[in-house]
Amino acid sequence: MNSQATHEAPRGAVALDAGQEAPDGDGSKQLPGLRADWARLAGRRVEVWLQDECVASGVVDQAAEDGSVLWIAAQGISTRRIFDKSSGYQIRV
User: Fold this and answer.
1) How much is the pTM?
2) Which of 4, 20, 44, 76 has the greatest number of CB atoms lying within 10 Å of its CB?
3) Residue-level pLDDT at 67
4) Is 29 helix (H, G, I), strand (E, B) or coil?
């Protein structure tokens, strides 16, 4: 497990493009706050936002290769849920 701490951005964080990501110590790129590339979020804890409201949170179970949709894993009594980018959902880590 990576020993580097991940810092989370405040809820009002501004969206950054993938080109503005800073690499972490293991060679992969991570960026706190709003994410545009959903395809690389499998296994990450995220918040799902719609119209400035957090509508769900959890661990990304799977994401489409093209980044168009992702699934939040089932937890407790909650079932696995799908969110699609074209419907206006935003993902924050």
Assistant:
1) 0.64
2) 44
3) 95
4) strand
